[in-house]
Amino acid sequence: MSYDLKTYRMPGLTGRGLGLSVSVLETDMARKILEPIVNSQLGMNEFRQHRYDIHPSFTPLHTNTSAVTATGAQRSVQLFMESVEEENLNQKSASLRGSLNCATLAYARDYRSELRSPLTVSLQLQAALESPHMQDSKAFVFTDSQALKHQAELSTKRFMAVQPRGLLEGVPVAIKDSINAVPYATTGGTEVFGQDHSAEKDATVVSRLRAAGAMVLGKTNMHEIGIGVTGANPHYGHCLNPWDTDFLAGGSSGGSAAAVASGICPVAIGSDGGGSVRIPAAFCGVVGLKPTWGRISSAGTLSVCDTVDHLGPIGASVDDVALAYATIAGPDPLYGPSCHQPFPHLSNYFKADLTGLKIGIYKPWFDHADKAIVAACREAVKVLESLGAEIVPVIIEGLEDMRLAHAVTIMTEMLSSVEQPHRETPERFNDDTRMLLAFARLFRSTDYVKAQRVRTRAIAQHEALYAKVDMLVTPATGALPPRRPKGSKVALDLGQMTEIMRFSINDNLVGMPAITLPVKLSGDGLPIGLQLHAGPWQEHVLLRTARSLESALRFNATHRPPHFFDFA
């Protein structure tokens, strides 16, 4: 089968044109008239003609086939933590594995040597959060100086008593506004959910960070209900790119990526239903990990697309992401899908030599991106080869049907989650959200079931692929960050959206892990990201490979955005 992923050239809509289109498409009569035209533009007519006589998979749940025992897995994480701790206290073995590139450790080192305390850092952080740059960037939607100070006081007391909870003790972290974190509301970037109601209990991921001693800075901005990939949001302000504020940070976890890229925190948590961790991480020049579906508990989150959504860490470096991952991953009885996983581990994490590692590349897909992105990612692939990896040509069939299956799945699930407010008070949503939800109403129940049949086929194909290679490499996105809209306007450009998401959505459909990391700056000074994809529960392989490449490229050691707070 030949490469079939299409490039969609559809006119972008903004302002009055977008508002008028929304008004028309939200009426039942107009929708019936326009349905054949819209479905043709979206590719749904061809999708409906394809037959898949296989059982549908309504979740991408993967069985535990790991050969690593629970004891072995726990020991590998313990060894990782011990190695990080050794690097923190002294650097005797740094020459054996390469010095850790971990912004998180700068806090731990200073706290232990009493150069500063969590309390003094919290005051500096509060001043930075109130600075004109951070206020204009719209990375955060909710912060609370008293809550931050209280956490810092408790953390400082633990250090004074020589009883830090862990390597994240006193380290600032940020939480996406779809994840519960006391004392903040969880709004999902919209006016529809709970703006006046603070969360009563932390999400599991937040409670695990707090148990490790982390200080929660606040809630970060996001694209409304996670339905877009630009980070434009009139409700809370458009989330701007720290590298150039004429551009957007990406979405939907744009605020989390922008906060890390700005130096405000070394780690933030996002969620990813179609690239929403990896896309903004790539746009903002930081590292983003989307783990296997169920690897990190989603208990206590506002998930509007359950079968494709994953929580994941965004970090200043691969080491920061690995440390966060080791802290928050693992089974949680409050979230059923997490209870089927093998124990998380980080075996061979410090092994920089990639000899024996096979990395697949599907050239027509890899090359289907902006020229500057393709060129930068090709250079990064050569570096992977120089580190010992073998690059293996592969073929992936049916990419266009996977794209449509993901679109039907995520949009149908999002519409189901906001069905009542969308019908009763659609004006409470942004126009771009309303338009996409109106499109979702064009999908049929038979489309959703067919999408799950495509998912079954896609999972089988990816499992066969990862039996031949250890991972797959692609660009992180097909396009560079979009420009910020003028004023409070939003735009909807489905062609651009498809370009940006081109290399992300398969992983969400099949529930397999992927990681993005920055590899170069474009001619305009905007970050370009590379993406590595792997089979179920192979986060340790992705993290090890990404760390080796990061160490060779030294991107985050030599590049920083113009507006950067050097707290580490």
TrEMBL record:
* Gene3D superfamilies, alphabetized: Amidase signature (AS) domain
**Domain of life per record:** Bacteria
Q: Where is the Amidase domain?
A: 136-543
Report the SUPFAM superfamilies cross-referenced here: Amidase signature (AS) enzymes
Stored PANTHER family:
AMIDASE DOMAIN-CONTAINING PROTEIN, TRANSAMIDASE
- Protein name per Swiss-Prot or TrEMBL: Amidase
